[in-house]
Amino acid sequence: MISCSIVIYSWNQSVNQKVISILSNINKISRIYLIYNGTNQDSFQKLKNCFSDDKKIKIYKIKNYGMGNAHNSIINNKELNKYHLILNPDVFVNEQAIEEGLKKLDENNEIIAVGPEIFDQNNIYWPSVKLLPDPITQIIRRLNPKSKINKKYELNNFHFKKDIFVPMISGCYILSKSEVLKDIRGFDERFFLYMEDIDIIRRLSKYGKICYMPNTSVIHLNNLESRKSFKMFLIHFISYIKYYNKWGWIKDNLKKDINNKFISFMNTLK
Fold this sequence. Notes:
Layout: E1 2-8, H1 13-24, E2 29-36, H2 41-50, E3 57-61, H3 67-75, E4 83-87, E5 91-92, H4 95-107, E6 111-119, E7 125-126, E8 129-130, H5 135-143, H6 148-153, E9 164-165, E10 168-169, E11 173-177, H7 178-183, H8 196-204, E12 209-220, H9 225-228, H10 230-247, H11 253-269
Parallel strand pairs: 1-2, 1-4, 2-3, 6-12
Antiparallel strand pairs: 4-11, 5-12, 6-7, 6-11, 8-10, 9-12
């Protein structure tokens, strides 16, 4: 069975209620933790009213110290099932993705976390697996998302048809072993928002394999907030600095080794 945590800062009833209701109707999910870290009391009350009769769902209100902090309030302090799903509040899941992910984790003890293929609301593929980043790549991809460097980072030259071990999966949906999540104490709370997903995947991968499952999929209503708002861009930029201060601006040999081995392996499959 699976537990799940979802952090909600801004309650969007038309989206969030549907996402959570679909999740609650999936048999393999037995616990859903909703963490509201917004400031609007009316929104929090609407959230509680929507799910007051759902015994699977527990709702908490906390101060906003960041996405990772909110998930950690559950990961480090509440009872989890054998596997735990870290989910964005605008991701529509389905039973197949849950069941196939659960099966993969059960069958292969080497695997620590799995992620599906991601599509946006227009059914357009969203980069679901990437290389580990470096500062230059992230600057260039922000200035020119269609650049060759960004296409390499997003692995656009490869077409994934089977489950495969990868450097990085999307942070909007991470299904992981709860024991390992607790061992690493969840997210690094120095990241308020952005880059926290890359960081936690890197730390999870020290315990085992990260598996991308392209034959399962979910829908993510991605709105690229950090490209539309200066405030969100600033938060993103600060997280960049914190990430590279932690993992290395130039001498990140582990990243180079992981990326090079993965690209070499993929080239053998062509």
